[in-house]
Amino acid sequence: MELPPSHHLAARAAGLAAGYACYRRGSPGRGLALRAVRRAGRQDIDDVGHKYHLELVLEDVLDKDSTVNCTAEVLYHLPNKNLPPDVQFTIEGELKNTDEADSVFYNRIKSLEKELVAENIPDSHGNVAPEMEPIRLLAWVASGYVIWQNSTENTKFQLAQIKHVKQVKRSDEYLEFDYRILLHEMVSQEIIPWQMTVRWHPHHGVQVTQDSRQPKHASEQRTT
């Protein structure tokens, strides 16, 4: 069944597909976000779930003039299956090369005498210090994993803010960060605190090794 590209179900599936693609292809030098839904269809599969067929445009978070086309399929399993959605995607064209930016960030963090600690990215005015941009992009990429694992047809998540991030000291070649983030669930308008441990190496990509939903604090609860 064809869906209008602006349909709320198409938008939710597209947001999930974009988050998953970002998790698989992103880095501290590149974050991907949904620019537009060009085409969408929904297929009901008996005893399995709902599959969405999507044609999307993705944009680079730092360079919104840099876009690529993407085709994706999202399968939401029936609720009683208790499984994350199946997502497959193909990016058409070349993504911007970020090897140099990733290498600069990797070497900068590796050369720090003390482990990096930061909070409130972006700040209350929406600003991100230039040296914190790769830290924000790494969280953006890693949040794609959390979004993928926790999405249903009734949700649409997006990273809102990094509340706190601390580098975890390691003796091997990887970088590791412990993040406390806020996720915006756009359907309910809920702001959800989440913890995630993120491991990264320029040659091995982003891994979320641990994540968990956190209890709300009074200052983070949504005002109605």
Describe the fold and architecture.
- With 224 residues, the chain is of the alpha+beta class.
- It has three helices and ten strands.
- The strands form two sheets. It has a five-stranded antiparallel β-sheet. It has a five-stranded antiparallel β-sheet with strand order 6-7-8-9-10.
- A hairpin with an 8-residue loop joins strand 4 (67-77) and strand 5 (86-92).
- Helix 1 crosses helix 3.
- It is globular, with a radius of gyration of 18 Å.
- It starts with a strand and ends in an 11-residue tail after the last strand.
Largest sheet: 5 strands, antiparallel
Shape descriptor? globular
Tell me the fraction of residues in β-strands, as a range: 35-45%
End-to-end separation in angstroms reads 37 Å
Record field, number of beta strands: 10
Helix count equals 3
Oligomeric organization of the protein chains: single chain
Query: Structural class of the secondary structure composition?
Result: alpha+beta
Keywords:
3 helices; 224 residues; alpha+beta; 5-stranded antiparallel β-sheet
Quick synopsis:
Helix content is 21%, strand content 42%.
Can you lay out the helices and strands and say which pair or pack?
Layout: E1 2-3, H1 8-25, E2 32-45, E3 49-60, E4 67-77, E5 86-92, H2 99-110, E6 117-121, H3 133-150, E7 157-167, E8 175-185, E9 190-201, E10 205-213
Antiparallel strand pairs: 1-2, 2-3, 3-4, 4-5, 6-7, 7-8, 8-9, 9-10
